[in-house]
Amino acid sequence: MLLPVFTLKLRHKIIPRMVAVGRYDGTHPCLTAATQAGKVFIHNPHLRSHYSSASRVSQSPLESDVSLLNINQAVSCLTAGVLNPDIGCDSLLVGTQTNLLAYDVHNNSDLFYREAIDGANAVVLGTLGDISSPLAIIGGNCALQGFDHEGNDLFWTVTGDNVRSLALCDFDGDGKKELLVGSEDFDIRVFKEDEIVAEMTETEVITSLCPVYGSRFGYALSNGTVGVYDKAARYWRIKSKNHAMSIHAFDLNNDGVCELVTGWSNGKVDARSDRTGEVIFKDNFSSAIAGVVEGDYRMDGHTQLICCSVDGEIRGYLPGMAELRGNFMDPTAEQEQIRELSQKKQNLLLELRNYEENSKMALNSPLNETDGHRGVIPANTRIHTTLSVNLGNEAQAAHAELCISTSNDTIIRAVLIFAEGIFLGESHVVHPSIHSLSSSVYIPITPPKDVPVDLYLKTFVGYRSSTQFHVFELTRQLPRFCMYALINPDSATEPVSYVNFIIAERAQRVVTWLNQNFLLPDDINTQNAPFQVCFTSLRNGGQLFIKTKPNGEITINTDDIDLAGDIIQSMASFFAIEDLQVEANFPLYFEELRKVLIKVDEYHSVHQKLSADMADNSNLIRSLLVRAEDARLMRDMKTMKSRYMELYDLNKDLLNGYKIRCNNHTELLGNLKAVNQAIQRAGRLRVGRPKNQVISACRDAIRSNNINTLFRIMRVGTASS
Amino acid sequence: MELTLNRADYVQVGVTSQKTMKLLPASRNRATQKVVLGDHDGVVTCFGMKKGEAVAVFKTLPGQKIARLELGGTLHMPQEKIFIATGSEIRGFTKRGKQFLSFETNLTESIKAMHVSGSDLFLSASYIYNHYCDCKDQHYYLSGDKINDVICLPVERVPHITPVLACQDRVLRVLQGSDVIYEIEVPGPPTVLALHNGNGGDSGEDLLFGTSDGKLGLIQITASKPIHKWEIQNEKKRGGILCVDNFDIVGDGVKDLIVGRDDGMVEVYSFDHANEPVLRFDQTLSESVTSIQGGCVGKDGYDEIVASTYSGWVTGLTTEPIHKESGPGEELKINQEMQSKISSLRSELEHIQYKVLQEREKYQQSSQSSKAKSAVPSFSVNDKFTLNKDDASYSLVLEVQTSIDTVLIQSDVPIDLLDVDKNSAVVSFSSCDSESNDNFLLATYRCQTNTTRLELKIRSIEGQYGTLQAYVTPRIQPKTCQVRQYLIKPLSLHQRIHFIDHDRPMNTLTLAGQFSFAEIHSWVVFCLPEVPEKPPAGECVTFYFQNTFLDTQLESTYRKGEGVFKSDNISTISILKDVLSKEATKKKINLNISYEINEVSVKHTLKLIHPKLEYQLLLAKKVQLIDALKELQIHEGNTNFLIPEYRSILEEADHLQEEYKKQPAHLERLYGMITDLFIDKFKFKGTNVKTKVPLLLEILDSYDQNALIAFFDAT
After folding, report:
1. Which residue from A89, A235, A666, B589 has the fewest beta carbons nearer than 10 Å?
2. Beta strand pairing status for B404-411 and B416-418?
3. Sorted alphabetically, which InterPro entries does this protein's record hold (chain B) (predicted)?
C-alpha cells in the first residue's frame, strides 16, 4: 500500500485544472494554483517570503507561506515552466478570457502581458516542432496562439471549435513535439506546427490531454471517460459516472513507464497502467480533485506525485520501491486473484448448469403456456435487423429507421441500444407498452452529426407473459451519411454551391463508397461513369448531388459546406487519397461570411471607442474624488454632496458601459469564432498539403484584411490566380 | 486497542438465505471449528480448514432451497446436531452428516424461520407460527403480518416457554402458548432476533433485534412488560441487518456484538462501562452478509469472524496477521502455498472452460433445429424495495449471484431517480417520447465489472401510482434478463405506525356499499404500503399510518360494507377518494362516498409544514452565502468584522453544505405538497383554483407563514 509522504491543508480553495508547480527562483518548487476572486496563490514552504507589498503580489492573510497574486479577473488557465531558457528559472503563465500574463515570480515582474482576443481556455508550455524557443501556447475560441518569452506571436492557427485542452507530445516519433488539441466538437487534432497530421473523433468534449510515454497520450472527456491513445489508435478507455478533473502521467511503480493518474470529481485518485487501464493504485480525498501535478516538493532529489483537492488538501506520493511492484492495491493481491478465479469458476459452472437444464427442458413436451412465462422460446429464434430511411409524415420528422424483428411468434419486450454521440445519454431504450407488444420494433434514429456509429443492440425476446427474457446481442453499423435519402434527380433542383475535384478511381469504386456510406433502398449497380445520384437531407431538406464524369471528375452540389467537407474527407480516407486540391464555390455561405467580417470590423471599432470612453471616465472619477474630498476638508458639505452625487452617476454610467462592453465582446467572440470556423471549413474541403496551404493562406489574407483574396483562396485553394 | 482483521476467503457454495451458516462447537478451547452451511440448491456443506485448504466433512445431495439452518441438541450438552428447514420439511443431521430426522410439518407454506431448543421446535411460515415438542404439535398462532424471524428465550433460564416473533409490521410479538402476552413496537421492520450473549444475558431475558432499515436494539422481555435497553440508529445509512452474533473478538473478556448487513457491511460493536455498544470495526464484503458467527476456523489459536454472503462465499475476518514475524523462509512458503492454489484453480478452470465450450457448441447447434426449445433456468435475484423514513424516498436494491451487466429501469409513473454515491454504474436516461407507450422513465445502468449489487434511490409523488419495472441482465451466457416489478402505491410515502395522535383536527372519508371485507382490504393494500396482503382475522380492522414527509397521519378503519378514513391532511383524503372510487368502479360496486372536511385541518397541516419549510429556506439562504463569505475571509484574513450570524455560517459551512446536499429538491417537494393541499382544499368545495396556483407560488417565493395561511383562507 502506498501512503502519502506528505499531506498539507491549505486554507484556500483551488479551482479545478489550474494547478502547477514551478521553480520560480530556479531551485525551490512552489505549488501554484488559481483560487477564488481572481487570485492565484503560490505556496512556498521553503523560503520565507520576502515580497514587499508590490503591485501584484501580497501576503496571504490566512497562511504565512502562501502569497497571493492578484489577477482581478477569473483565471481560465494556468501553467508554470521554462519560458526563457536564459534566465534559468520558471515563469508563471496565467490566462484569462481576454489576456495572457507571463510573470516572473522571483523578480516580481511581468515578462509580457498580451491581449488574447480569442480568450485562453487552455495553456501549454514547451517547444513545438522546429521552433527553437519555448512557446506558451494558448487555445481559445477556435484559435491557437503561441508566444515566446518576449511576447512575440510565433505561432497561430485555427481549429474546428473552441479549444478545451492542449498537450505537447511526440506524436509521430520524430523527436519533435506535436501539439494535441482537444476541442468542443469532440475532436482531438494533432498539429505538426501548423499542419494537421491527424484527427480523432471522440464522443464528448475533450477536457484534458496529457503526454504519457513516447507517442502515447492520455485523454479525458466530459462524460467521465478516461483513456489512452497510441498515435491515432485508442489503446484503452474506461468510463465512470464521475468526471475526470485532471490527468497526469507519472511513473508510480518505478517500472520506467508512466502510468496515467486521474483525479476524479468524487475525490478519488487512481493510477492506471498505460497499457491495459488496470488500476494499480488508488486513494480517496474528501472533496473533488482539482489537479494532479508532480515536483520534488520535499527537495530530497525524488519527484513526488502531488494531488490537490478543491478544498486545498494536498498529498504527495513517492513512487513505490521496485519490490513492491504490482502490490500497491492490497497486501493480499493473491487473495484477490483467488477470489477472481473462483468467481470465474462459479460463473462457468452456472453456465454449464444453464446448458444442462436447457437440454433437460428440451426433452419435455412442446411449448406451452407456463414455458412462455418462464422465458422458454424456440431455439431457432432469430433476430433480423434492417436499416432504412423513413421520409416521415406530419407527426414525425424524417429519420433513419432501424427495424428489429424476430423470426417467429415471440415478442420483443424491449430494445436497448448503446451507441455514442447519437442519443442523449450513452443508450436509448425502446419499451413498448404491454398492449402493443409485437414481434417487430421500429426505432427512429436521428444522428446529429455525419459520423459512422456502431449500434450495440440488446433485444429482450420472450412471450407476452414472460418474466424472464432471452437477450440477443447484436452490433450494427450506422453508415456515415444515413440522414440522406435517395431521390429522383428530375424532381430536385440542383444547389448552386458545389465542389469539384478529380480523383483517379474507377466508377465502381465510387459506387462501392456510395453503397457503404449511404442508406440506399437497393445497392447501386452502375458500372460506368458518367452517372449522378441525388439525395435529400432528412435534417433540413437540402439537396445533395454527386456527379461523376468519365475522366474521374467528381462534382458535389450542396449548400452545406460542412457536408461537402465530410464527403471529401470520407472519400479521401476510403480511396486513400493523400493530397487533393478542390475547387469550391459556396456563394451563400461566402456572402454570410462577408457580413460577419464586416461585423467584426464594426465590433472592433466599437470596442476601441468604448475603451477610450472608459479611460476618460476613470480620469474624471479621479478628479471628482479629489474635488469631493477637498470639499469635505473645507467642510463645504453641499459641494461635497453634489460631487459625490456626480460620482455616483458616473459610476452608474461606467457600469452600464461595462455591460455594453461585455455584450460587444461576446458578439465579437461569436463572430471571430465564425471566421475561424470558416477557415477550418475551407481547409476541410481539401486533403493533405492543399489543406494546409488553404489554412495558412486564409490566415495571411485575414491578417492583411484582404477579404477578396480570402474568398478566392477558399474557392480555388491558392492565393495566386 | 485497534482491531485489525484480515480477510480470508474459504469456499463458495450456492446462493444462501439468511441465517444458514453455523460453526460446529470445537472439541477444545480455541481449536479450529467446522463450518456448516446450507444453500438454495438444497445442499448442506460441512467443511474444515486444513493448511489453508478447505476439506469437506460431508455434503448432502441437492434438493429444495434451504431457508434456515440451526444447531441443536440435548440441553446443557454441546449443540452439535444440525437442523435445516427446506420447504415444509425439517431435517436433522449429525455432525458427521448422517440424517437422523426427517419431519414433514404439513404446513401449507414453506418454512421461513426456525428456532431449535432441546426437543422444542419453533417454526414460522409467512403468517403462521407453530410450536412442536418432539415433533408433536403444541401451539399455533396466526400473525397479522409476515413473520420474519422467531426465537425463544432460553427455556432452562426462564420459567415459561416464551417465544418471540419478529413481524413485518414493526412489532415483536411475545407469546405464551398460543396467545400473545404483549406486543413491542420497534423502530423498523425487524428482520432478525438473537439472544443477547447467546444465552439471553444476565437475566436470560435480553433479546437483540435488527431491522431492515439498519437499526439495532436490545430489549429485556420480562414476564409482564418489555424494557428497552439501548438502540443504535442507522446514521451512516447502511444496509438492513441480516444477522447478529455475540463473540469476544476484541479479546477483553466481554462478548462483542457482531453484525452483518445487506449492503455487505460487517461491524463489531464492543460495550463500554455503561453497557452501551460502541462501534469498533467495520469492513465491507460488497454483497449481502447472510450469516455471521465468531469462532475459529482458519488456524487454531486465532479468533475470527466467519461470514457467509448471498452468492455463497464463506469468508473469515481473522485476527491472524498476514505477514508472520517468523523467518523469511516461512513467508516464501506461504507464497508458494498461494501460488499452488492459484495454479490448481487455473487448471480446474481450463478444464471447465473446455467443457463449457463443448456445451456452448451444442447449444448453438440446437438452435438450428426447428423443434428444439431454448430454456435458460432463472437466476436468483435478491431484491429489496423499501421506504426510507429520513428522506421520504424509496431505495431499490438488486443483488445477483454473478456480476450484473445492465439494469433497465422502466416506470409508468413519473418518478425521480436519484444518484447513490455507493454505486459506480454509469446511468443514462433515455427519452420517453411517446406517451402512448406508458413510459415515464427509461434509464439504463451499465455496471462496472464485478458489480453484483446495485442500489437505486427513487422519489415518488403521492397520488401518482403505477409500476416500476427493473430488467436485470447478468453477465452470464446464454444471456437472459429477468423482470422485477414494484408497485408505487397512491399513498407511497405513508408508513405504518401503531399509535396515533387523536387530538389533531381530522377530515373524514366514509365509504359505504356492497363490498366484502376482503374487497375493501384489497383496496387498502392497493393504496397503502406495509399492509399485509392477507385480510387480517376479525370483522373490523384499524391501521394507522404516518406520512414520512409531512408527518401527517391517517387512520383507516374498515369492515364489510363500511370504511372510514381519517386524516389531518386533506390531500391524503382526496387521493384516497379518487383511487377508491376508481377501484370500486372497476369492480362495478356502487359506493356511497361521504366526506367531512375540517377547515382547521388545513391550517394545522400548514403549521406542520412550517418548521420544515422555514428550515429549508434558511438552509438554502445560508448555503448561498458560504462562497461569498469565504471570499471575504480570504480577503481580510480574519472573520472578526463579520456579524456573529455570518461567522457561525462560516464555521458550520461544511456541515451546512452536507445537509443541503442530502436533501435535493426538498424545497420543491414541499412546494408541490402545499400546492396540492391548496387545490384539494377547494376541490372538496367544488371550486377549481388551478388558475390561482401561480399566485400561490409567488407567495411561497417570499414565504411568510401568516401570509400563506391568509391566502388559503381568503381565496
Report:
1. A666
2. unpaired
3. Bardet-Biedl_syndrome_7_prot, BBS7_GAE_dom, BBS7_hairpin, BBS7_pf_dom, Beta-prop_BBS7, WD40/YVTN_repeat-like_dom_sf, WD40_repeat_dom_sf
H helix or E strand, kind and range, residue B555: strand B553-559
B248/B265 Cα distance (integer angstroms): 19
User: Is A427 at the interface with chain B, CB within 8 A?
Assistant: yes
Q: Which of B346, B430, B630 is the mutation pick for testing A, counting most A CBs within 10 A?
A: B430
State the pLDDT at residue B218. Answer: 92
Number of Cβ within 10 Å of residue B275's Cβ equals: 11
Give the tens place of pLDDT for each residue, B554-604: 999 998 888 899 998 888 988 988 898 888 888 888 888 888 888 888 888
Q: Is the pLDDT of residue B243 over 90?
A: yes
| Cβ of residue A41 closer than 8 Å to a chain B Cβ | no
Alpha-carbon distance of A197 to A173, in angstroms, equals 13
Q: Where residue A330 falls among pLDDT bands split at 50, 70, 90?
A: very low
Whether residues A36 and B631 touch (CB distance < 8 A) is answered with yes
Q: Is the peptide bond before A530 cis (omega within 30 degrees of 0)?
A: yes
**Cβ A424–B431 below 8 Å, yes or no?**
yes
> How many whole angstroms separate alpha carbon A91 and alpha carbon A79?
9
Band the pLDDT of A720: cuts 50, 70, 90: low
With cell 457536408, the residue in question is A563
Shortest Cα–Cα distance, A382 to chain B (Å): 9
> What sign has the CA pseudo-torsion A118, A122, A123, A124?
negative
Using CA atoms, how far residue B618 sits from A450, B372, B392, B610, B660, in Å, is 50, 67, 20, 12, 11
Q: What separation, in Å, do the N-terminal and C-terminal C-alpha atoms of chain A show?
A: 68
* Pairwise CB contact (< 8 Å): A12 & B635: no
Q: What is the dihedral sign for C-alpha B620, B626, B628, B629?
A: positive
Whole-structure pTM value: 0.82
Grid cell digits, residue B713: 383562507
**Given this model, what pLDDT does residue A369 score?**
53
- Of residues A48 and A285, more confidence is placed in A285
Q: Which three cell numbers stand for residue B426?
A: 454509469
Q: Which residues of A touch B363 (CB under 8 A)?
A: 355, 358
| A83 vs B473, residue with greater confidence | B473
Q: So what's the pLDDT on residue B174? A: 92
β partners of residue B364: none
| Rounded CA separation B259/B246 (Å) | 9
What angle do helix axes A587-633 and A637-684 make, rounded to 10 degrees? 160
Contacts of A343 in chain B (CB under 8 A): 12, 402-403, 450
Residue B188's beta-bridge partner residues?
none
Between CA B610 and CA B151 the distance in angstroms is 44
Mean pLDDT, residues B454-474 taken together = 90
ipTM of the complex: 0.82
E strands, B326-440, in order? 373-374, 381-388, 393-400, 404-411, 416-418, 426-430
Residue B462 grid coordinates: 403521492
Laid out side by side, the sheet with A109-115 consists of A75-81, A91-96, A99-104, A109-115
- CB contacts of A39 in chain B (<8 Å) are 634
Distance CA B469, CA A438 (A): 19
B217-234 pLDDT, tens digit per residue, is 999 988 888 999 899 988
Please give the mean pLDDT across all residues of chain A. 83
Q: Does A433 touch chain B (CB under 8 A)?
A: yes
CB pair distance less than 8 Å for A355 and B481: no
pLDDT tens track for B438-448: 788 889 998 88
Q: With an 8 Å Cβ cutoff, is B140 touching chain A? A: no
- Percent of chain A surpassing pLDDT 90: 2
Subunit contact B478:A349, Cβ cutoff 8 A? no
